[in-house]
Amino acid sequence: MTDETANYPVELVLSTLPVAVTRSLASYHDFSAKTAPDAAKDFIAHHNACKAGLGHISTLLKLYILCRKAAPEKAQKKSEEFEALLLHARHVLLSTEPQ
Question: Is 67 part of a structural domain of the chain?
Fold first, then answer.
């Protein structure tokens, strides 16, 4: 692997993460806003689906942190965009509107 291609996976991940996080946040927000079912089995399924969504978002954010550590110069280019996305994520997860 040459120096040119060594960071290709990091660049690819950094370029696709904003879209992936945005979609995941929108999906989580839409699903979790639905009223949870009254039946215990359905309530548990709804609750577990919400937890899975949060886990997915958390994993994507951890992936960004790993990429930032692996190639800080590449991550710096995406830093402003991703910082705005992190702020948006906080607002969505707290069920408030971004300002």
Answer: yes
Neighbours of 89 (CB within 10 A): 21
Q: Is 25 exposed, middle or buried (0-12, 13-18, 19+ CB in 10 A)?
A: buried
Burial status of residue 33 (CB atoms within 10 A of its CB: 0-12, 13-18, 19 or more): exposed
* pLDDT value of residue 98: 41
Chain segment 66-75, per-residue pLDDT in tens = 888 877 776 6
Q: How many domains does the chain have?
A: 1
**61 within some domain:** yes
Determine the structural domain holding residue 28 and report its residue range.
Answer: 3-89
Residue 99 lies inside a defined structural domain of this protein:
no
- pLDDT (tens digit, 9 = 90+) per residue, 20-66? 988 998 899 899 889 999 999 999 999 999 999 999 998 998 888 88
